[in-house]
Structure formats: C-alpha cells, structure tokens
From TrEMBL:
A Pfam family matched in the record: QVR
Superkingdom of source: Eukaryota
Lineage: Eukaryota, Metazoa, Ecdysozoa, Nematoda, Chromadorea
The name this protein goes by in its record: Protein quiver
Regions that span the bilayer: 12-30, 189-207
Keywords carried by this UniProt record: Glycoprotein, Membrane, Signal, Transmembrane, Transmembrane helix
GO biological process: regulation of synaptic transmission, cholinergic; sleep
Taxonomic source organism: Onchocerca volvulus
Amino acid sequence: MPTLDSSNSGNIAIVVILLIIACSIIPGSAKHIKTTPQVFKSRFKGQVACYSCVSFTNEFNPRKMKNFKFNLSTTGLFQTLDKGGVLVPKHVRQCPETYFEHFPKYHRMDVVFCSNTDMEPGACVKFKGNYDGNQYVYRNCWNNMWIEKRPYVRQLSERCYNDELVQNFVATINNKICFCEDDLCNSSHSIFLSSDLFFIILFVTFLNSR
C-alpha cells in the first residue's frame, strides 16, 4: 500500500486547508454536494427529517432591516410561491441561518418528517432566490412543499442547481436549489461542508495513488 512521507505531512495539511477555502468560493450551476453512497439511512427508516421554514435574509440582519419593507415584500413573496404551486411553510426570522441543526427549537422552526421509500422517494430541499431585490431562503421536504403532490426523481439527490430548475415553478431570480436525503441536511452549512469533503477525499485519493 502506498504511504506518505511524514516530512510532507505539514505541506499536505496546508494544501488541504487551502483546498477547503477554494471549494467554498467556487460557483457551479450543478454540482455534487456529497459523495456518500446512494443508500441513505433515511431510506432504511422510510422517512427523512427536514427543516421547514421561509424568510428573507434581511430579517436576520438588523443592519438591513431599516430599508426592508417587511409586510409588502413578505406578502408578495408568499403570493409568488403560492402561484407556483409551492406550499408556504412557517415564517421564521432565523430561517436563513440554521447552524445549530441539533437544536431546531432554538430557532423556533419546524422539523417535518416525510416519506423516503422505494415506492415514495423523498428528500430535503433548500432553495434561495431573490424577490423584489431581497434574497429569501426556503426549506422543506419535497413531499411537503407542493400544493398538488409531485413525484420526486432520485437522480436530483445530492446536487444543487441554479436558475433553470427553480424558475420552472417559481418566478424569482438568482435561484439555487439543493436536494439531499440525510436528516436535517437542508441546514445552512451541511451542504457546503459536504462539497468540501468531496474535494478533500478526491485530493487524498490522488495522493495515495502516486
């Protein structure tokens, strides 16, 4: 089995750190967000737990609240989502940031449980968009987000997509939607962390193959 010289371990650590930083700023219209196998724990359990909430990012930033027309913008956004056939979940000011994913009550947001089986596949969803000049964040599970139920295509899992897919049902701009199947995976950081881990694993695999 190939081994790494201990004298190079420091340089490798630095490269890995730089790689993490680079991964966090590289944009992409569609990219893998995990490298886990296509069999998820939620499939064995038959259900997946997801955050469910919606709000504008300005609501979480006091500096931007001064010029934010809350009632007008929120009403307009909810009407736009409803027109696209999307159910409006609980409005929670903290929805843009869910770093403490193990303490959902701290953020006063809902956690919903949706089916994820061979007969009825499902996933957690997170998407961001821009409405009337303000960015919003929407989190839900696929089976809960539609007024009229739509089948989920598992090929979407562990990927993020930009405008094209979202604009098929929501008339907002600068959209990005992500799908995942692990419990509470539609939090703020888990998607991006998984992307970093993907590149780290790829890098280590490359080193070990030399």
